[in-house]
Write a structure and sequence with these properties.
By secondary structure, the chain is an alpha+beta fold. It folds into five domains: about 200 residues, P-loop containing nucleotide triphosphate hydrolases (Rossmann fold, 3-Layer(aba) Sandwich), CATH 3.40.50.300; about 80 residues, Elongation Factor Tu (Ef-tu), domain 3; about 70 residues, Alpha-Beta Plaits; about 100 residues, Alpha-Beta Plaits (2-Layer Sandwich); about 110 residues, Alpha-Beta Plaits. About 25% of the residues lie in helices and about 30% in strands. The strands form six sheets. Strands 11-10-16-7-8-15-12-13 form an eight-stranded antiparallel beta sheet, with helices on one face. A six-stranded mixed beta sheet has the order 2-3-1-4-5-6, with helices on both faces. Strands 21, 22, 23, 24, 25 and 26 form a six-stranded antiparallel beta sheet that branches. The longest helix has 21 residues. The protein starts with 19 loop residues before the first strand and ends in a 10-residue tail after the last helix.
Length: about 625
């Protein structure tokens, strides 16, 4: 662990709120948030050159491997402002609380929670790529949270950077002059000092009553195997002291604070944290339900009576079943999901049973990347082997008798006369060079999209707004968009409601028996393609049995595709060399009768490998080859 600089060790006693500045960094994916955070850590002396490494705040292996930020990270830094600085900040030593946020649309909830703990946001834009879809989405989130925006252009050292062009774009978006947009290179450190001075000058000091009963907002939590639940808070009123007895206002649970402190960037104990400060609490609690994100922490005696606003709980967009390959791992999976939900408040889950896969959980995610990351984290951090079913969105099915069913799993799709099926729709914003307008329109029309409008941000950049079914977005839309536009297009989307659609449930039958894990709800036009694709895939994956196995894809009672797995046959004619043909026929008829009887009593054994392989890419309904 790196040695903490002497100037940064918090002394017992609260910090004066007037010198505290809370800010976060928001941007599109790969625009340099984590690199800028690295330079700030080095410039403020919190991390020395020996301990420094790229993407210092990306703590998880999966973040470092993929090169993306998944979890927001808070860190406290000291910063001394010299007299006569260009930003016009008052000279003195300040305490900066910085939160590095994710950029991907699936982790927008992480960003929104971080914004609630800040008074300002650095809006970072790549000087070579310009404003992208997630730049706009995060800017609107920051504006909704009433934060001061500090516009910054990064990567000005790149040969293809166009700082003047994109500074004008950014200025028009934020409502300032192009000269006010800071130009930096987070990689080389050019201009980062000016950004810190600008933060001090532009960010208002946190507002709160230091003498009121304590109130602190929980904006994140993690589970530590040795110390229990570690809770990250932003203090709004009063102060929290070591050994105080605190109360969680939503649950009424009372705990003693065993440790209180700040992250700088490793945990550093402190005697007290006051108004406007961001820090952590440890109470020794092992039950993960005792520390909910969005809850208000106050003192047990003479505490606050009114809780803070908290957060809106996110609605899951994509559902998938997660099952342990070894049935004995079910309790471990349940505990793992409990602990992961503490660290990822957007994850929802409930138990479910599948005839083919056994006991597992139906999990709700904000998108396909969120699902992929969650499964990866469960397997790595809790040593589990999991199988996930094909992801699907939430449908509403209205029957002719007026009953309405909410379907999160194809096996819940009701039988009987259906009046209407409604599917969720999203408003998608696509930013792209104008050369690819035709390609994007073609893709969106193939995905049942409706064009809502189109604006030119500059001569060669266009913003397109489409209404698209969520089911089309979550599978392969983003991959296709990137490949068709050579990686230049960017996508952001938000849920807007639902619409009626011509949807059907496709069942996969093995020897006439439906296998619930392979069922899917798809658009009627894509149902034939899905049935042919999955039946063909299963024919290659399921090993041959002692009897012939028909694989059928069916909508209700109507079979739309079929494949046969031929039986393994013993060569019963091996000993017949010569003689009458009737003798051979007799042996073959006898074998045929045996196979027929075996088919009546035999069950088709589907190996786990077949489920894993079939479900890994099954969502994409390909068009059948002619």
């Amino acid at each position: 662990m790196p040695a903490t600089p002497a100037a940064e060790i918090p002394q017992p006693g609260r910090t004066d709120a007037s010198i505290v500045r809370n800010f976060c960094i928001i941007a599109h994916i790969d625009h340099g948030k984590s690199t800028l955070a690295d330079r700030m850590l080095q410039l403020t002396g919190v991390v020395d050159a020996r301990a420094a490494r790229a993407q210092y705040l990306d703590r998880m292996d999966i973040e470092r491997e993929r090169g993306i930020t998944i979890k927001s990270q808070a860190v406290r830094m000291p910063w001394t402002v010299e007299a006569g600085n260009e930003a016009g900040a008052a000279p003195g030593t300040y305490v900066l609380n910085m939160i590095d946020t994710p950029g991907h649309v699936d982790f927008t909830y992480e960003v929104s929670r971080s914004l609630e703990a800040c008074e300002a946001a650095i809006l970072l834009v790549d000087a070579a790529q310009g404003i992208e879809a997630q730049t706009l989405a995060n800017l609107y989130l920051a504006m909704a949270a009433d934060l001061d925006i500090v516009p910054v252009l990064n990567k000005i050292d790149l040969p293809n950077a166009q700082p003047e062009k994109y500074a004008a774009e950014l200025a028009g978006l934020v409502g300032c002059e192009p000269d006010e947009v800071l130009r930096i290179s987070a990689k080389t450190g050019v201009g980062v000092e000016a950004v810190l001075n600008e933060i001090v000058a532009k960010t208002p000091a946190p507002v709160g009553d230091p003498d009121a009963p304590p109130r602190a907002l929980i904006f994140d939590s993690v589970y530590d195997t040795y110390r229990g639940v570690v809770t990250y808070v932003r203090v709004v009123d009063g102060s929290l002291k070591h050994r105080d007895r605190i109360k969680m206002m939503s649950t009424g649970a009372v705990h003693e604070m065993l440790e209180v402190g700040v992250i700088s960037p490793e945990p550093v104990k402190s005697g007290e944290i006051g108004v406007g400060e961001v820090g952590y609490l440890i109470t020794g609690v092992k039950d993960v339900r005792q520390s909910r994100v969005g809850d208000t922490v106050t003192s047990q005696h003479g505490g606050a009576t009114e809780a803070l606003g908290g957060y809106d709980h996110p609605n899951p967009m994509v559902f998938a079943g997660l099952y342990p390959i070894d049935g004995d791992d079910y309790p471990t999976l349940r505990d793992a999901l409990d602990k992961l939900q503490l660290n990822d408040a957007a994850l929802a889950y409930e138990p479910e049973t599948s005839g083919a896969l056994g006991f597992g959980f139906r999990c709700g995610f904000l998108g396909l990347l969120h699902m992929e990351i969650t499964r990866d984290r469960l397997e790595r951090e809790f040593n589990l082997d999991l199988i996930s079913t094909a992801p699907n969105v939430v449908y509403e099915v209205e029957m002719e008798d007026g009953k309405v069913f909410t379907v999160t799993n194809p096996s819940e799709y009701p039988d009987g006369k259906i009046a209407e099926v409604r599917e969720p729709v999203v408003k998608a914003t696509i930013l792209s060079p104008s050369d690819y307008i035709g390609t994007i329109m073609e893709l969106c029309q193939a995905k049942r999209g409706t064009l809502g409008g189109m604006d030119y941000l500059s001569e060669d950049r266009v913003e397109m707004r489409y209404t698209l079914p969520m089911a089309e977005i979550v599978f392969d839309f983003f991959d296709q968009l990137k490949s068709r536009t050579k990686g230049y297009a960017s996508l952001d989307y938000e849920f807007t409601g639902d619409q009626a659609a011509d949807l059907v449930k496709v069942d996969i039958l093995l020897q006439g028996e439906p296998v619930d894990a392979f069922s899917a709800i798809v658009h009627k036009d894509a149902s034939y393609g899905y049935g042919v694709m999955l039946a063909g895939k299963l024919k290659d994956l399921i090993p041959r049995q002692q009897f012939e196995v028909p694989i059928q894809a069916a909508i209700g009672a109507r079979v739309i595709a079929r494949e046969n797995i031929r039986a393994i046959r013993k060569d019963v004619l091996a000993k017949c060399y010569g003689g009458d043909i009737s003798r051979k026929r007799k042996l073959l008829e006898k074998q045929k009768e045996g196979k027929k009887r075996m088919k009546m009593v035999g069950r088709v054994e589907v190996p786990q490998e077949a489920f894993i392989a079939a479900l890994s890419n099954s969502p994409t309904a390909e068009k059948p080859k002619k």
